[in-house]
Request: fold
Amino acid sequence: MAKNPTPKQALEAARRAHDARLDAVRVLAEARQNVADVRESSAHDVEAAKAKATADISAAELADVKAWEAALRAGWQVAELRRIGFAEAEKKARVRRRRASGAATPPPTPAPPPQERAVATVAPEPEPATLPALDLVGAHHE
Reply:
């Protein structure tokens, strides 16, 4: 026959089982917090990397524009540089295109105030057609 545990033994066994369950929840909570921390840190790292890459590209483009302008100051013509295989500095061309497209379009005209806009967009109602009077009573009795 199986021996029943004493009250002290039963409580100790229950406490061990409960502690094991609590440890599992603690490990899960720590793992979830770690995921959140890594995601936050990674998002910050990505933003910092994007900012650094943008700054590096801007610095390289600025150096390219300066080298292009130095070649022109040294006596090279744009056509000569193109024949050699050098296109105009990309940043310089991009800025010129942006300025040209902005200069060609007139500034937008301001929208009319709301009251005028409502009047301007609503078509006038047509005048009701005037119909000749009909004698409905006498028409059936002739």
Observations:
- Residues 7-73 form the longest helix (67 residues).
- The chain has a mean pLDDT of 81.
- The chain has five helices and no strands.
- Residues 61 and 91 are 6 Å apart (CA to CA).
